[in-house]
């Protein structure tokens, strides 16, 4: 039996608690939160789970294997450092940390402690993203030309972090995964509307090797609820719309260039069936499997550090009204597909 704990029983932590309590072969042993009221709620729902406001209770428990950190971002680094120091396997919610150096320090510490370090890049565990990745790797889409993503909604408006840090980690992790590498620069513009110092809407462009672009548009001040990804390849194009009836659409359209003449190819549109699966349950299962087998997670510490690096450099770009900011190549390779 693999035993797990959760730190942070807030809005998202509640989903983790529900998911881990139902994970076959695992035992949810601890829930820790600084809020006694949140813990009271957990005790009512899950009377067999230990609850505490003291982090030390989890770190000193020799029977505890792994910890999910689902607190607010400024606390991630310190909590993860302590958990890894106590030889616990750790999953940190996005964004992994607030600085690349902190993320790399955790990656290094996890390696020295022989612990799994995973980051909660939820979309990397979405069956449709997995399917699109396979279409790219098998050559079905042809060469990946560009992609764009939208993550839009009306609310939750945050004052403690902007829409770039709050929403874009998912889109950046997907762009890196589908491009199969790290971006070389980022350009980012944000607009502060509700709060004078917090960007509620952000438009960003990541440039990848080979001149390929990924555009990310995030906002919590938009009339649409939209979670959309469009990938344009040289052979086919793909639309993933999480709010639509047909979530995945594959379009056999493009252009042909023969003897200097360009013609458009208007092929068929299909809606491939992809087996459903709740991304959070799949992500939890992956963390559990990595703990048991010692495998390197798909969204490991380096993948998390890379996303934080893009966030940091994107913030620099935003602070300078959208100048293009190069992203230094400091990282090892992203893990290949599962
Ligand atoms: N992967 C996803 O799709 C997804 C979705 C939403 C949120 N998140 C991430 O999950 C994390 C939590 O977000 P949320 O919306 O649940 O926030 P929240 O504010 O609702 O909950 C945070 C909880 O952490 C507790 N907490 C804060 N500091 C603590 C500490 N030092 N020790 C113990 N408990 C502490 C708070 O009391 C609160 O209950 C954030 O990193 C957020 O970005 C991820």
Question: What is the fold-level CATH name, i.e. the topology of the largest domain?
Answer: Dihydrodipicolinate Reductase, domain 2
Largest sheet: spatial strand order: 14-13-12-11-7-10-9-8-15
How many strands in all? 15
Mean pLDDT level: 95
Radius of gyration: 21 Å
Separate helix tally: 9
Shape: globular
Key attributes of the depicted protein:
33% helix; nine-stranded mixed β-sheet; Dihydrodipicolinate Reductase, domain 2; 33% strand; six-stranded parallel β-sheet; globular; 2 domains; alpha/beta; 338 residues; binds nicotinamide-adenine-dinucleotide; Rossmann fold; 15 strands
Give a written overview of the molecule.
This protein has helices at 11-21, 36-45, 55-59, 76-85, 100-113, 127-137, 163-179, 279-293, 301-319, and strands at residues 2-7, 26-32, 50-52, 66-69, 89-93, 117-120, 144-154, 185-195, 198-208, 212-219, 221-233, 237-241, 248-258, 261-270, 325-326. With 338 residues, it is of the alpha/beta class. It folds into two domains: 2-121 and 280-300, Rossmann fold, CATH 3.40.50.720; 124-276 and 307-326, Dihydrodipicolinate Reductase, domain 2, CATH 3.30.360.10. The strands form two sheets. It has a nine-stranded mixed beta sheet with strand order 14-13-12-11-7-10-9-8-15. Strands 3-2-1-4-5-6 form a six-stranded parallel beta sheet, sandwiched between helices. Strand 5, helix 5 (100-113) and strand 6 form a beta-alpha-beta unit. The structure holds nicotinamide-adenine-dinucleotide.
């Amino acid at each position: 039996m693999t035993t797990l704990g959760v730190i942070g029983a807030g809005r998202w932590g509640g989903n983790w608690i529900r998911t881990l309590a139902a994970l076959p072969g695992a035992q949810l042993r601890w829930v820790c939160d600084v809020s006694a009221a949140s813990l009271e709620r957990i005790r009512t729902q899950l009377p067999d789970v230990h609850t505490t406001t003291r982090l030390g209770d989890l770190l000193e428990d020799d029977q505890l294997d792994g910890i999910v950190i689902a607190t607010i971002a400024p606390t991630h680094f310190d909590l993860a450092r302590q958990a890894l120091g106590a030889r616990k396997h750790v999953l940190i919610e996005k964004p992994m940390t607030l600085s690349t150096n902190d993320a790399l320090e955790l990656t290094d510490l996890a390696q020295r402690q022989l612990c799994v370090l995973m980051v909660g890049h939820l979309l990397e565990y979405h069956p449709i993203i997995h399917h699109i990745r396979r279409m790219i790797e098998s050559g079905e889409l042809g060469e990946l030309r560009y992609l764009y993503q939208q993550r839009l909604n009306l609310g939750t408006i945050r004052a403690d972090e902007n829409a770039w840090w709050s929403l874009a980690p998912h889109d950046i992790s997907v762009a890196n995964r589908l491009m199969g590498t790290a971006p070389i620069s980022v350009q980012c513009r944000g607009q502060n509307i509700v709060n004078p110092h917090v960007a509620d809407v952000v438009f960003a462009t990541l440039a990848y090797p080979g001149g390929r672009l990924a555009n990310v548009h995030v906002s919590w001040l938009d009339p649409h609820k939209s979670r959309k990804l469009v990938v344009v390849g040289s052979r086919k194009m793909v639309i993933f719309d999480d709010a639509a009836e047909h979530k995945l659409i594959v379009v056999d359209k493009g252009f042909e260039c023969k003897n200097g003449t360009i013609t458009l190819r208007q092929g068929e549109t299909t809606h491939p069936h992809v087996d459903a699966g709740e991304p959070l349950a799949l992500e939890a299962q992956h963390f559990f499997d990595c703990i048991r087998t010692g495998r390197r997670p798909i969204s490991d510490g380096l993948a998390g550090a890379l996303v934080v690096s893009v966030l940091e450099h994107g913030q620099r770009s935003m602070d300078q009204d959208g100048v293009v900011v190069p992203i230094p190549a400091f990282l090892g390779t992203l893990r290949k597909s599962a």
